[in-house]
């Protein structure tokens, strides 16, 4: 059918641009009610308008996911307005690559705060939702965005790669505990996707490295990731696609 995710309540973080925005759109198209979270309210509002204009159901919650109380408040608001969430796409992340001896400590901290602490805040606030959904016999998905950087040894990627290695390994560990409770735990590890991600890097050499790759090869689009995440959530409840690596065909 056209609505394999009907009845699902999805939360997407990092939904104001790139992978998160495309995934929110796709999940809504497939029938899920979607809550979009990020800091830029104007972008979220535009996304919600566009989802609603195509007949979907969506709500914007401007939240900085590094703020634990704010994430908890959002989870409570979702319970009131949409019911408990059963599909959490824990996707907000930042990539600030640089050589370690440049000592960009602010960039190190921002990546750790968002890619690790932000991800944990979302898990803390929404695990009770996922548990309740699973106990009620419904599908329950916790899908986090990692990266091929989790396993590849890429020069200047140390802190970013460290945070993504954390995500990939966390997924394996949580799956052991939560799979038995019928919560599916998964991660998607993309290669190069054309998004705003490189725009935030403060090291000009690193920015150029990524811009060049986008020029040279046919990289992934956010819609490619969106389609994959939707698939991971739409398979039958006893099937857990746990780690999906998705690369542009021409990326080495
Ligand atoms: P974008 O920069 O387009 O998206 C990042 C999103 O995170 C934005 O919506 C941003 O919105 C949000 N965000 C940033 N800080 C916060 C915060 N404190 N609280 C809440 N939301 C926040 O890049 P992508 O779409 O590429 O990135 C999405 C994920 O994909 C990241 O985890 C990234 O590491 C991963 N990834 C990306 C790859 C790529 O090649 N693009 C490859 C592999 C993985 P706002 O500023 O409004 O808060």
From TrEMBL:
Residues spanning the signal sequence: none
SMART domains with a match to the protein in the record: PKS_KR
Keywords: Oxidoreductase
The keyword Repeat appears for this protein: no
Domain Ketoreductase: residue ranges: 8-156
Origin: domain of life: Bacteria
Pfam families: adh_short (PF00106)
SUPFAM superfamilies in UniProt: NAD(P)-binding Rossmann-fold domains
Family: Belongs to the short-chain dehydrogenases/reductases (SDR) family.
PANTHER family linked: 5-KETO-D-GLUCONATE 5-REDUCTASE, ALCOHOL DEHYDROGENASE, PUTATIVE (AFU_ORTHOLOGUE AFUA_3G03445)-RELATED
Name listed for the protein in its UniProt record: SDR family oxidoreductase
Organism: Nonomuraea antimicrobica
């Amino acid at each position: 059918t056209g609505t394999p995710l009907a009845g699902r309540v999805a939360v997407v973080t990092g939904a104001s641009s790139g992978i998160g925005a495309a995934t929110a759109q796709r999940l809504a198209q497939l029938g899920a009610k979607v809550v979009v979270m990020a800091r830029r309210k104007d972008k979220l509002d535009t996304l919600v308008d566009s989802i609603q204009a195509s007949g979907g159901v969506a709500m914007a919650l401007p939240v900085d996911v590094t703020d634990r109380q704010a994430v908890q408040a959002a989870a409570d608001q979702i319970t009131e307005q949409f019911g408990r969430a059963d599909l959490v796409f824990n996707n907000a992340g930042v990539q600030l690559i640089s050589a370690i001896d440049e000592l960009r400590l602010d960039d190190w901290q921002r990546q750790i705060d968002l890619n690790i602490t932000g991800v944990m805040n979302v898990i803390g606030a929404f695990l009770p939702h996922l548990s309740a959904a699973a106990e009620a016999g419904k599908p329950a998905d916790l899908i986090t965005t990692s990266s091929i950087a989790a396993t590849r040894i890429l020069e200047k990627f140390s802190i970013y790669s460290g945070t993504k290695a954390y995500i990939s390994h966390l997924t394996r560990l949580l799956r052991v505990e939560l799979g038995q409770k019928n919560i599916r735990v998964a991660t998607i590890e993309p290669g190069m996707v054309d998004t705003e991600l490189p725009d935030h890097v403060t090291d000009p050499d690193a920015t150029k490295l990524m811009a060049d790759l986008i020029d040279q090869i046919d990289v992934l689009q956010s819609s490619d990731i969106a389609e994959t995440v939707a698939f991971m959530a739409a398979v039958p409840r006893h099937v857990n696609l746990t780690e999906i690596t998705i690369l542009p065909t021409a990326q080495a």
